[in-house]
Specification:
The complex is a heterodimer.
Chain A: H1 4-9, H2 17-42, H3 45-61, H4 63-68, H5 72-91, H6 109-124, H7 127-137, H8 143-150, H9 154-169, H10 172-176
Helix pairs in contact in A: 2-3, 2-5, 3-5, 5-8, 7-9, 8-9
Chain B: H1 3-18, H2 27-63, E1 84-90, E2 93-101, E3 111-115, E4 120-122, E5 129-134, E6 142-148, E7 155-158, E8 162-165, E9 167-171, E10 174-184, E11 190-193, E12 203-205, E13 227-230, E14 251-258, E15 261-270, E16 273-281, E17 290-298, E18 307-314, E19 320-325, E20 330-333, E21 336-338, E22 341-349, E23 354-360, E24 366-370, E25 377-381
Antiparallel strand pairs in B: 1-2, 2-3, 3-4, 5-6, 5-13, 6-10, 7-8, 7-11, 9-10, 11-12, 14-15, 15-16, 17-18, 17-25, 18-22, 19-20, 19-23, 21-22, 23-24
The chains are: A mainly alpha, B mainly beta.
Chain lengths: ~180, ~375
């Protein structure tokens, strides 16, 4: 998959005041969704916000083109998933990093248990399988849209999803909380 | 997956993510980062055009005997991706300081400052840490330093000349506000903190490191080993993270991993009693070179009683560290885990010497091998 930075670096963008106002409105409207998508990919609140910032900062750099794209959200999603994957490769995130404070899930005890179980199960999946699950069940994207986001074929998406669901189905924590 | 399972999973994922309450969109921060990206691209173009000029200038400075290492020459954003908080080029060599997780895969996150992805200085979120390192002989005469400051500090001034930008980086779920820079080892470094908070000194002096060669038993050996100091009013070093006896009972080697480096405490009991000693070496990162420490347990110069320990922080892929000895025999050291890092230790009794170390994976295949072994102190080896 090509890196968004290379795509964005191709043409210089000049942001005018009007563009800046447009971008601010765009960033404010997309921020919650991006953070939630990133949280699904990382399971870490702070990292999710950092990755969402990275995605929007890259969109800012290429704002003239992003704002005129047919589907700016698809562009943004792709940047965000790439940023998330790069972060995982760099950090070599350990299976025990669930001890981090950001991973805590807040709410009533029963919901906390269910959500923590799902978060833990998602975290056990390899990054690409996790991305497929989150893009399918949170963003409600089709195979073709997920493939475009991840830079792979729809067939790969289907096989990755199949493997991910097989793992989730036998996850003991999810079984206890009656999910999936 | 059945339709019911599909529905249930969709519901569960929506419940999980819908309830995540994001903070307000930090638009100013995002725009600053965007401008930082654009600035870095500009620098990349300038760098491609002007690298030859930079090299020429630094070469001239060296030839003149007044080596001036430049501080961070390339600005990074106020909140840096990938943990990078300072970078630049000195003597034609690019350098980069970052906060990264240095725990081996599968173990609890361990944040550390790393120089060019290699030698690490474990860090804690509390501000106040001030540290320096040299990388002789690969970068003679050059030191690298960083300071951890409170969030309110945005800038520090190095030797009254150049500003080092304070950058916020994250690792292992914590934020660090750090400024990094390169400098010439020929001069003392004074750091001025702009608008310091109460209890903070305005001027700090960087701890001295030495990059002298050759190393000897009486000469300080600091290449790759961070030297830490603490600003007044800051919290003290939290201390040893863990220790574990790895060899016994007539001799014992303990590893104490912390901000002092990979520090080994070792002792051996002989007819004259028990000798207690210690030595510290650089902290290796998972992707960086491995540090081979020689530990003189008992008079290594005496061929009759000499006993030398060798300790190596190895990658998790290492199943065994095979020692080939000068008498033709070999020994296999099985790695043990201390605080999420994997070490292998072996002991060689004089007059036998260690001739070669070989890294083996679980299938018994050779990962790496070296004959460049220290008689005292340490050497670093990239498998």
């Amino acid at each position: 998959m090509s890196e968004p930075r290379d795509e964005l670096a191709a043409v210089p963008d000049i942001i005018t005041t009007d563009d800046g106002e447009d971008f601010s409105a765009f960033a404010v409207s997309r921020w919650p969704g991006l953070v939630r998508l990133a949280y699904g990919l990382t399971g870490d609140r702070w990292m999710a916000e950092d990755i969402a910032q990275t995605a929007l900062a890259r969109a800012y750099v290429a704002w003239r083109r992003v704002s005129r794209a047919d589907d700016p959200d698809a562009y943004l999603r792709r940047i965000l998933v790439n940023a998330s994957n790069r972060r995982f490769r760099r950090r070599r995130v350990s299976e025990q990093s669930g001890d981090l404070p950001e991973r805590a899930v807040e709410g009533p005890a029963e919901l906390v248990s269910e959500r923590a179980a799902l978060l833990g199960a998602l975290h056990q999946l390899p990054p690409r399988q996790r991305a497929v699950v989150v893009l399918r069940y949170w963003e409600d994207l089709t195979d073709a849209q997920i493939a475009a986001t991840l830079g792979c074929s729809p067939g790969t998406v289907r096989s990755q999803l199949s493997r991910a669901l097989a793992k989730l189905r036998v996850d003991p924590a999810l079984g206890e909380s009656d999910h999936a | 997956m059945t339709a019911t399972e599909d529905r249930e999973l969709r519901r569960a994922v929506h419940e999980l993510l819908q309830d995540v309450p994001p903070s307000p969109a930090p638009v100013e921060e995002i725009v600053r980062r965007g401008k930082g990206i654009r600035l870095r691209r500009t620098w990349a173009v300038v760098g491609a055009l002007g690298l030859a000029g930079i090299v020429a200038v630094t070469t001239l400075a060296l030839a003149g005997g007044r080596h001036q290492a430049s501080p961070a020459t390339v600005p990074v954003g106020p909140v840096a991706p990938g943990g990078v908080f300072a970078q630049g080029v000195v003597d034609g060599h690019p350098w980069q300081l970052a906060v990264q997780d240095i725990a081996d895969p599968g173990y609890l996150c361990q944040p550390a400052i790393v120089l060019n992805g290699t030698d690490a200085d474990p860090v804690f979120p509390d501000p106040g840490n001030l540290a320096a390192v040299a990388l002789s002989p690969s970068l003679p005469g050059i030191g690298f330093g960083f300071i951890q400051v409170p969030a309110a500090v945005s800038q520090v001034i190095v030797n009254g000349q150049a500003n080092a930008q304070v950058v916020t980086v994250a690792a292992c779920g914590f934020r660090y506000h750090v400024a990094g820079f390169a400098y010439s080892l020929a001069q003392a470094v004074r750091i001025t903190v702009a608008n310091p908070p109460p209890g903070w000194p305005t001027v700090l002096t960087l701890p001295q490191v030495s990059g002298r060669l050759p190393y000897g038993p009486s000469m300080q050996q600091t290449a790759g080993l961070w030297v830490n100091a603490y600003a007044a009013g800051a919290e003290e070093e939290p201390g040893t993270l863990d220790s574990q006896a790895v060899i016994g009972p007539d001799w014992i080697i303990q590893i104490q991993f912390g901000t002092g480096g990979d520090c080994y405490a070792f002792s051996a009991t002989g007819s004259a009693g028990t000798n207690h000693m210690g030595a510290c070496g650089p902290v290796s990162t998972p992707t960086g070179p491995e540090t081979i420490m020689a530990l003189p347990l008992a008079s290594p110069s005496d061929p009759a009683t000499g006993l030398t320990g060798y300790a190596v922080q190895v990658s998790p892929a290492t199943f065994g560290l095979q020692a080939t000895l000068s008498n033709g025999s070999s020994e296999l050291a099985t790695p043990c885990v201390v605080d999420g890092r994997v070490y292998a230790v072996l002991v060689v009794r004089a007059p036998v010497r260690l001739s070669r170390l070989t890294w083996l994976n679980a299938a018994g295949r050779v990962i790496a091998s070296t004959t460049a072994l220290p008689q005292y102190g340490y050497v670093q080896f990239q498998p």
